[in-house]
Amino acid sequence: MDSRNGPEAPQESNVKSFFNSAPPLRDGDLICNKLKEFMDRISLSSENGSPVRVVCVTSGGTTVPLEQRCVRYIDNFSSGHRGAASTEYFVKAGYAVIFVYRRGSCQPYCRYLPQDSFLEFFDLTEDSTIQVYCILQVCQSHATMVKKAIRDYRKAVEEGLLLKIPFTTIFEYLQILQMVAKSMSWTATRGMFYLAAAVSDFYVPWESMAEHKIQSAAGPLDMRLTQVPKMLSVLRKEWAPSAFCISFKLETDPGILLQKADMAMRKYGMHVVVANELATYKEEVIIVTKGRRTAVRRHNKETDLEEQLVYLLDEMHYEYIKQGGA
Ligand code: PAZ
Question: Where is the composition biased (Polar residues) (predicted)?
Answer without folding.
Answer: 11-20
